[in-house]
Design a protein that fits this description.
The complex is a heterodimer of chains A (472) and B (202). Chain A has a single domain, classed as Beta Barrel (Porin). In chain A, 8% of the residues lie in helices and 44% in strands. Chain A contains 4 helices and 20 strands. In chain A, a hairpin with a 2-residue loop joins β18 and β19. Chain A is globular. Chain B has a domain at 115-199: Cytochrome c-like domain (Cytochrome Bc1 Complex, Chain D, domain 2), CATH 1.10.760. Chain B has helices at residues 2-22, 30-40, 59-70, 77-87, 92-103, 115-127, 138-141, 159-171, 177-183, 188-199. The longest helix of chain B has 21 residues, at 2-22. Chain B is globular. The chains are: A mainly beta (472), B mainly alpha (202). Chains A and B meet through α4, β7 and β8 of A and α1, α2 and α4 of B.
Chain lengths: 472, 202
């Protein structure tokens, strides 16, 4: 079996981890501190259980617009005695680096998805870097902060805006009306759920880092990253009594690197805009969550969703719209102590799709459901791992999920894809993660065996992914 | 129409910022509401045992600890991870204000522990362990464990927090010569019993 060599390599890496672990189990302070840590002087462990997962304190840091600071500020004052600026002496900048190697279960054909899989490409994909990011993360002014990320990606070898969130927030109380504690805020961001503070929603959900050299399944719900950096949203939120989170807002298309044909500049999107774009005034987005913390435990349950009218490429604003409505449930549990960290999170996203562009589909109404459930454990934030079970199921549609395409198609016209992810991580320092991740498919694009009609099995898309992830 | 939505949103942002500036006049100091309460909660009764209760703590003790975090003389692991950053820019006036605020709050109610361990802890607290050169804790911390001046209130404190501090005194992770001498001969079981008793006190 082709996977034997990469399984052996993964085993060697695992042994190396264990040896390194034995040598470094003594607790050590964080020796390198990314932007937030530079601004606050807090250890990574204050806000993160194991990055990027947030602790209850980390959630509140984000809800407070990232403004907690203990760096000297430049604070000029006007003639009327009002503070006109509050600028950190030390900008909260940091860099993130990811490098990886991916072994794919069965090599891809050489000439793209339309070719018969006779000639084959390299079976593994080495990327150094897989991504390189520059962050500004922290306070801009009193009550205003940002999480801004620029990332170099290997495809198409360019730097682009990544998840970004500009946020205003105030933490206050109204003693006179018996409200002891609440946060209110506004967030402007470019990816629905990137503003969320729980790790059970897609943008900051598990797997936190995964291969980009695998085979993507044929269908994803719209909240599963389809609008990431292709939209801009503004929403307002309240966090009441340290328990109840309420957010409502709207997203519009804001497509990066699109040039309007008429103006030659980043003007309004027209039918030549690549990919799908949100149509209309705004796609409403909502999020409600309840968090209950006690002793070392934190439990939250919630719901979120979006109603997204869209146009595909080639359809102008006056043309027929397709509407994707996502309604989701999620839950997260954490047990956080110095020695043991256990987390579990799950989400179920139910998508209702209505197509007015009837040429794209067999049936104008269909559904797609995604369920993910993850459990993870870490010992002293040094070593641990995660297991995730995932499943996407949807209506059969031979036009939307066409056959006749090697690797990426569906011989049955079904999008059903399911499997599991297993990951083992070692963190020699709080800001550096070394990991081995195995993604296993028991079904892919509708079938376990010969799912594309060209002889490719679901397990041929299994990946062994070895990575280094550091931020400094 | 779409432009109007944007203008309304910007106006909202401006109004909220102005409102935020006007709201300095709540009962708690601004820093407490905005920062300290995130972990210690607005009234100083925290949820997670990672963060100690501050409610009804001795003001002198709180001031000493905040200054110790600021100058990094208190260096147990959680002090480093959380409080060094939090205290770095605090002025003396802010420290006094925060300490006075939390000192004036109603104390945490206490959390019942097992009967036997509570009784054993009470005996150690009141009588000490002469055979192990452990003096009675109440001679400094008071017969109700409410503290006095520089000696902190211990009553009702999170049990894991108390256990962690005693361990830190023993190992000198938290530098305090008196507490090191007083606690260095305690066994792990005795620490657990003392913490059980104290955490149950109102």
């Amino acid at each position: 079996m082709k996977l034997r060599a990469c399984a052996l390599a993964a085993l060697v890496v695992l042994v190396a981890f264990l040896v390194a672990l034995a040598a470094s189990l003594a607790p050590s302070p964080a020796t390198a501190t990314p932007g937030f840590a530079r601004q606050t002087g807090l250890s990574c462990a204050a806000c993160h259980s194991v990055f990027p997962e947030l602790t209850p304190f980390g959630r509140r840091f984000k809800l407070n617009a990232y403004v907690f600071t203990n760096v000297k500020q430049l604070e000029p004052v006007s003639e009327q005695g009002q503070k006109t600026l509050s600028l950190s002496d030390l900008p909260p900048l940091s860099v993130q680096l990811q490098g990886s190697n991916t072994w794919l279960g069965k090599a891809l054909p050489d000439n793209g998805a339309s070719a018969q899989p006779t000639d084959r490409s390299q079976q593994n994909s080495t990327q150094f870097p897989q991504a390189l990011s520059l962050f500004y993360t922290g306070k801009i002014a009193d009550y205003l902060g940002a999480f801004l990320q620029l990332t170099w990606n290997p495809t198409p070898n360019s730097v682009g805006i990544d998840n970004s969130d500009l946020r205003f927030a105030n933490h206050s109380d109204f003693e006179s009306i018996g409200v002891s504690d609440f946060i209110y805020g506004l967030t402007l961001n470019n990816n629905p759920t990137s503003q969320d503070v729980w790790n059970s929603t897609p943008a900051w959900g598990y797997p936190f880092l995964t291969t980009n050299a695998g085979v993507p399944p044929i269908a994803k719900v719209i909240l599963d990253g389809q609008l990431a950096q292709q939209s801009a949203g503004l929403s307002g939120y309240l966090f009441l009594f340290n328990r109840l989170y309420l957010e409502v807002g709207g997203y519009r298309s804001a497509q990066t690197s699109f040039t309007n044909a008429t103006t030659g500049g980043p003007g309004p999107l027209d039918s030549t805009a690549p990919l799908m774009r949100l149509s209309g005034t705004a796609a409403p987005y909502w999020r409600v969550a309840w968090e209950q913390d006690w002793d070392s435990h934190s439990l939250s349950v919630g719901t979120y969703g979006i109603v997204a009218p869209t146009h595909p490429t080639g359809i102008g604003e006056s043309g027929p719209r397709n509407t994707f409505t996502d309604i989701a449930l999620d839950a997260e549990y954490q047990y956080l102590t110095d020695n043991h960290i256990f987390s579990a999170y799950g989400t179920w996203i139910h998508e209702l799709r209505h197509f007015n562009n009837v040429t794209l589909v067999d049936h104008p109404n269909n559904t797609l459901d995604t369920v993910r459930f993850t459990g993870s454990y870490f010992f002293r934030r040094k070593i641990g791992g995660s297991v995730q079970l995932f499943s996407t199921t949807g209506s059969k549609d031979t036009v939307l999920y066409p056959s006749g395409i090697a690797v990426l198609g569906s011989a049955t016209g079904r999008p059903d894809t399911r499997g599991a992810v297993f990951e083992l991580d070692f963190l020699p320092w709080l800001n550096t993660k070394l990991g081995v991740q195995y993604t296993m498919y028991t079904m892919f694009n509708g079938k376990s065996r010969n799912y594309d009609g060209f002889g490719r099995n679901a397990s041929d898309n299994n990946t062994v992914y070895v990575f280094v992830w550091t931020a400094f | 129409m779409k432009a109007n939505v944007m203008y309304v949103a910007i106006a909202g942002l401006v109004l909220m910022t102005a409102g935020a500036e006007a709201q300095e006049k709540s009962a708690a100091p601004d820093l407490v509401t905005r920062v300290c309460s995130t972990c210690h909660r607005p009234r100083g009764i925290s949820t997670s045992p990672m963060f100690p209760h501050l409610a009804a703590q001795q003001a002198v003790y709180l001031e000493t600890q905040l200054k110790a975090f600021r100058d990094r003389s208190r260096a147990d692991p959680h002090a480093q991870a959380f409080m060094w950053g939090m205290a770095a820019q605090l002025t003396d006036a802010a420290i006094t204000e925060i300490a006075a605020y939390y000192a004036s709050q109603q104390p945490a109610p206490g959390k019942l522990a097992g009967r036997e361990e509570t009784a054993a802890g009470k005996k150690i607290y009141q009588e000490g362990i002469p055979a192990q050169q452990v003096p009675p804790c109440q001679s400094c911390h008071g017969d109700k464990a409410a503290g006095n001046g520089p000696f902190p209130r211990l009553a009702g404190q999170h049990r894991p927090y108390l256990e962690r501090q005693l361990a830190a005194f023993i190992s000198n992770a938290r530098a305090n010569e008196i507490m090191h001498e007083n606690s260095k001969n305690l066994t792990a079981l005795q620490i657990s019993q003392i913490a059980a008793f104290l955490s149950a006190q109102p």
